[in-house]
From TrEMBL:
Pfam family, one: Gly_transf_sug
Single GO biological process annotation from the record: mannosyl-inositol phosphorylceramide biosynthetic process
Protein name (database record): Glycosyltransferase
Keyword Hydrolase: no
Amino acid sequence: MIIKIILFLNVIVITFLYRYLNKYFKKKYTKDENIICKYNLHIKQALHKNVILKSPNIIPLNIYQTYETLNLPGVMKEAHTILKSQNPEFMVHLYDDTMRREFIKTNFNTDVLKAYDTLIPGAFRADLWRYCIIYIKGGIYLDIKFIIDSNTNLKLIDFVDKEYFVRDFPGPNREFMYNALMISKPKNKIYLKCIDQIIENTQNKYTKECLNITGPGVLATSIYNNIDICQNIDLKSLKLQGRRNIDTHIVYNNKKFLIKHKGRAYYKEIKKSNSNYSTLYKNKQVYN
């Protein structure tokens, strides 16, 4: 009986000492993650590295758009305003014809400026300028008629992880690349190839095919002839879809992403401006 009592007292004493000493010597850790991480440098570095790898933004957060004047017609003004509200992470820059020419004059040689001045359709001049500004600045060029579809969760900020081109509808003999949306780092040589081709076209007064003067044909040729420098560019995810010009839209992995804001009204505004490039092309008013 005495032995049982002694054993019982020993258990009580040991339990008491364990609880007391554990409470006394136990380190009190803060719940602050940064302080916890500093006790393990490897964990902190690993967490930091993981965050960087998760969202490597390589595209400058600038969106470039253009029209012949800064006094935008109603539908274009609406689209421009909506796009800015949809993409608050970006600076949205609007250039008119005078600003485009000044940018080319400041950043390129006289051959490029002469090509710009030789072209008559505003859309053709805008094509040349968009290649120039994306080559120098990088970022996103987007035609002023587009806004993000309200039924998608996608935003342009989701496309700053790499460079993208948009697959256009096929041409008569080959595919085109849609130049209404271009996402690029600065100094992408594809755009320099486009600029050089437009210089050559203006010097030779090329008129064989409308979209091969400055537009999707030029971009496609520059890509396909230099495919070796496009290995890290996404050429497949973004595509142009739709049956009629007024409702064509850009899809990402076959899900609608960018749509034309009030497409029918937009093209009526273009028609009123008497600057439609296809009409000028048919009338052989391409070069000065």
